[in-house]
């Protein structure tokens, strides 16, 4: 299958809710980038996080094997530093091969869960 997507993506809205109603991984509030690599070559991904009141963090580096998907929780990023919950941020995701990026948030601060999902902004 031919590679599809773009090499650079932006998610202008980011926020990891600081609380959750549950403790299981499925119910922990989180922010995620779902990355699809439909091509025949592995994707080397670099993520930079931008804040409103401090210098950017990153790059965070992950790989997505060929013809696979990765649901990457921003909550799980640790190197070079964790992203602080309850803080507004934005992200730029760069890949060495075309990929597709979707942004998702689960907000479980209340028993009535909220799920947000949208395609990221792709540019080359």
From TrEMBL:
Pfam families in the cross-refs: ASRT
Alphabetized InterPro entries for the sequence: ASRT, TM1070-like_sf
Gene3D superfamilies: TM1070-like
Protein name from the UniProt record: Sensory rhodopsin transducer
